[in-house]
C-alpha cells in the first residue's frame, strides 16, 4: 500500500499543506469562522505530518523517539498556546496603536494573508539571523539547535522566550500597520503548518521551488552542527531574504543523519524540557555553539 502512496506523498504533500490546509484556513478566516477551526485544522495538519513521515521517511530512524518525543510535545503545546494567545491579544495591542494604520483592508482576503506572511517572514528571518550572531539571543535559540533528528514536531522545539522574540519581530510591523484579527489568525495557522513542513522527516519534493520556499530540503543545512555551516537558510516561509543576505546554501548531493545535527560546541546540551528552559541562564551555557575552528567535514 505504501508503495502506491509514495509518489503521491512525494509530490503532493507540500501542496496539500500549503494550498489545502493553509488555503482552508484563509477561507475560513475570511468567512469569519470561530477560532476553534484553527485548532481543528492544526490537529489535521499534525496528523498528516506524522502519517506521511511513515509512508515516505527521509530517515527511518528519525521516526523513532530519541527520548525526545515527550519533551517536544510539551514544547509544541506551550509554543502553540503562545501563538494562540498572540492572536487573541491582537485587538488589545491594536487599540494601543494610534490611528487606523495603513493595512490594505480593501484587498482580497487572500492577498492580505499573503502580505502578512511576507512581512512576518522578513521580521522572523532577521530575528533568526540575529540569534546566530548575538550571544544573548543565541543562548535561547540554542534550545532549537539541540535537536538530534528532523521530524515535524521539533519545529516547535523552542525556548518560549525565543519564540516570543520571533513573534514580536514578525508581528510588530503588522500590528503597527493595523492587521485585522482574521488575517492574524490565518497567519498563525500558516506559521504552524510551515514549521511542520520545514522540519518534516518526509522525503517530499517541490522541484525548483526548493530555492525559494523555506522547506525541509534547505532547512536541514541550517541544522548542520559545524562552524559556520549552519549559519544559512534562516527564512521561515521563504528563502528570499537569505538570497538577499547572502546566506542561502543548498547542495543536492548532501544526505543527512543524526550525526550531522546538534551543536558541535555543546554535545551535552540538556535534553529535558525543564533543563532546556533553565539552560540559557546557567553559567555552562555557551554564548554561541558554532566553534570558529570546528571541522567542516562532510559539508
State the helical fraction: 40-55%
Major beta sheet, specifics?
none
Q: Tell me what portion of residues adopts beta-strand conformation.
A: under 5%
Detail the poorly predicted runs: 287-299
State the total count of DSSP E strands. Answer: 0
How many domains, as an integer?
A: 1
Question: Can you tell me the overall shape?
Answer: globular
Distance between the termini: 36 Å
Q: Report Rg.
A: 19 Å
Mean pLDDT, all residues: 89
| Number of distinct helices | 10
Question: What class, by secondary structure content?
Answer: mainly alpha
Order of helices and strands: HHHHHHHHHH
Quaternary status: single chain
Summarize, please.
The protein is an all-alpha fold and 299 residues long. Helices cover 54% and strands 0% of the residues.
Q: If you had to describe this structure to a student in words, what would you say it looks like?
A:
- This protein is mainly α and about 300 residues long.
- The protein is built from ten helices and no strands.
- The chain has helices at about 1-30, 35-55, 70-95, 110-130, 135-140, 160-175, 180-200, 215-220, 240-245, 275-280.
- Helix 1 packs antiparallel against helix 2 (about 35-55), helix 2 runs parallel beside helix 7 and helix 4 packs across helix 7.
- The chain starts with a helix and ends in a 21-residue tail after the last helix.
Amino acid at each position: 500500500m505504501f508503495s502506491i502512496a509514495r509518489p503521491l506523498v512525494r509530490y503532493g504533500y507540500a501542496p496539500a499543506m500549503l494550498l489545502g490546509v493553509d488555503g482552508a484556513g484563509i477561507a475560513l478566516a475570511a468567512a469569519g469562522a470561530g477560532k476553534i477551526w484553527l485548532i481543528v485544522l492544526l490537529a489535521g495538519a499534525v496528523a498528516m505530518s506524522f502519517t506521511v513521515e511513515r509512508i515516505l521517511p527521509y530517515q527511518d530512524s528519525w521516526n523513532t523517539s530519541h527520548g525526545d518525543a515527550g519533551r517536544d510535545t510539551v514544547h509544541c503545546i506551550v509554543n502553540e498556546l503562545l501563538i494562540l494567545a498572540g492572536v487573541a491579544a491582537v485587538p488589545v495591542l491594536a487599540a494601543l496603536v494610534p490611528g487606523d494604520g495603513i493595512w490594505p483592508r480593501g484587498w482580497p482576503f487572500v492577498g492580505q494573508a499573503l502580505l502578512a506572511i511576507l512581512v512576518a517572514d522578513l521580521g522572523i528571518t532577521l530575528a533568526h539571523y540575529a540569534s546566530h550572531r548575538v550571544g544573548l539571543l543565541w543562548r535561547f535559540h540554542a534550545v532549537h539547535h539541540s535537536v538530534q533528528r528532523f521530524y515535524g514536531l521539533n519545529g516547535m522545539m523552542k525556548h518560549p522566550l525565543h519564540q516570543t522574540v520571533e513573534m514580536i519581530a514578525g508581528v510588530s510591523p503588522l500590528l503597527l500597520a493595523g492587521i485585522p484579527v482574521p488575517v492574524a489568525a490565518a497567519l498563525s495557522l500558516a506559521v504552524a503548518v510551515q514549521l511542520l513542513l520545514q522540519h518534516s522527516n518526509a522525503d517530499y519534493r517541490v522541484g525548483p521551488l526548493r530555492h525559494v520556499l523555506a522547506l525541509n530540503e534547505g532547512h536541514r543545512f541550517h541544522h548542520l552542527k559545524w562552524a559556520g555551516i549552519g549559519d544559512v537558510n534562516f527564512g521561515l516561509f521563504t528563502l528570499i531574504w537569505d538570497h538577499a543576505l547572502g546566506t542561502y546554501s543548498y547542495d543536492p548531493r548532501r544526505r543527512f543523519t543524526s550525526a550531522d545535527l546538534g551543536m558541535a560546541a555543546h554535545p551535552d546540551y540538556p535534553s529535558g524540557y525543564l533543563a532546556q528552559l533553565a539552560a540559557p541562564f546557567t553559567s555552562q551555557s555557551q554564548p554561541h555553539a558554532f566553534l570558529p575552528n570546528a571541522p567542516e567535514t562532510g559539508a
